[in-house]
Amino acid sequence: MTTNIYVIVEHRNGVLRDISWEAVAAGKKLSADLGAELTCVLLCGTGESMAPQLASEVPKVIVVENPVFETTNSEALILTLKELLKPQGSYLVIMGASNSTLDLAPGLSVALNAALATDCFSLEVKNERLLASRQIYSYKINSVVSFKNSDRVVLTIRAGSFQFSPVGDAKGTITNEPCPIDEGKLRKRFIKYVEAEKGDVDVSSADIIVSIGRGIGDEPDLDMFQSLADSMGGVLACSRPIVDKNLLPKYHQVGTSGVEVKPKVYLALGISGAFQHLGGIKGSPLLIAVNKDARAPIFRVANYGIVGDLNEVVPALEEKIKSLKG
Ligand SMILES: Cc1cc2nc3c(=O)[nH]c(=O)nc-3n(C[C@H](O)[C@H](O)[C@H](O)COP(=O)(O)OP(=O)(O)OC[C@H]3O[C@@H](n4cnc5c(N)ncnc54)[C@H](O)[C@@H]3O)c2cc1C
Questions:
Q1: Are 9 and 93 in contact (CB under 8 A)?
Q2: pLDDT of 295-315, one tens digit each?
Q3: Which atom in ligand 1 lies closest to the alpha carbon of residue 255?
Q4: CATH architecture entry for 203-325
Q5: Top-level class of domain 4-185
Q6: Residue 310: CB within 6 Å of ligand 1?
Q7: What's the pTM?
Q8: What digits encode the pLDDT tens for the residues 172-188?
Q9: 279 lines ligand 1 (CB under 6 A)
């Protein structure tokens, strides 16, 4: 039976990333389900500000400081985590599924001789067995996996799958452990972050998003959609086919290979609701969908749906909004 849960937290520029808090949420859930002790592991340049934040949410925080952890280096992380975790008994290791953990998680599972399930969107305990849900075949099929004869498991969790609700009064302990690595012997080194292209609009921080999909047709009147977005005080975003057709730049694309958004209102126009698109919409916005096909998958997740042609619905919506605004 699993006795310990270790959440490996991720940070950038000295700030804990959202995905780390979601991993903490997953850790808290499994800690309650399994009766296992929850510990956050923070490998960083300095834990001064991040460690107390974690300690206000979980019972234990282990900090290992080394300048190499200011950025990301899976080799250094694996070597350190191996030293920390190898002597422990049975445990689960949880981390976010992110660019940084793409090589960290499998490498660590090999180093620890642990089972691995990546990009899990749900974790459950049934009859004392851990079940992890993940998607396979380009997200077409959900699979539920269990871990045979394994008392060590490494899990990564998909962004947006576990909701973190801060408590703030955990009064956890903070323990500093020495860093076991010799930086000079590392074969991998971090060179630099390359920031994604920044555009004239930042859809990632917009509260109101009007998002257009392939349903706008081959010769769309983009001004009509921009005008609706303007009337709502929102910004224009899109699904991937719109970027593929060069109708909008990449930084407008919402989804797993685009931008993650956290709006209050998301109006999806002519978007079918593919998982890769919905995967970019975090939290629970008010999701309104307009689609001419009543069976479009987006209607399964939308709060409100309008079955109709965009060319009729969009001008009507804008007129209504303008008349309401006076
Ligand atoms: C590895 C990978 C990563 C991906 N990443 C992303 C991503 O980040 N973001 C993303 O969006 N996609 C991504 N995709 C693509 C994704 O799988 C879908 O193909 C894409 O989201 C579909 O876009 P869509 O809904 O605009 O188009 P479609 O699926 O073609 O849907 C168009 C919708 O418009 C409706 N429609 C048509 N005409 C009208 C009309 N006149 N009025 C009203 N409705 C109309 C149709 O009924 C249909 O439901 C990715 C795919 C892969 C394999």
A1: no
A2: 999 999 999 999 999 999 999
A3: 8
A4: 3-Layer(aba) Sandwich (3.40)
A5: alpha beta
A6: yes
A7: 0.74
A8: 999 999 999 999 999 99
A9: no
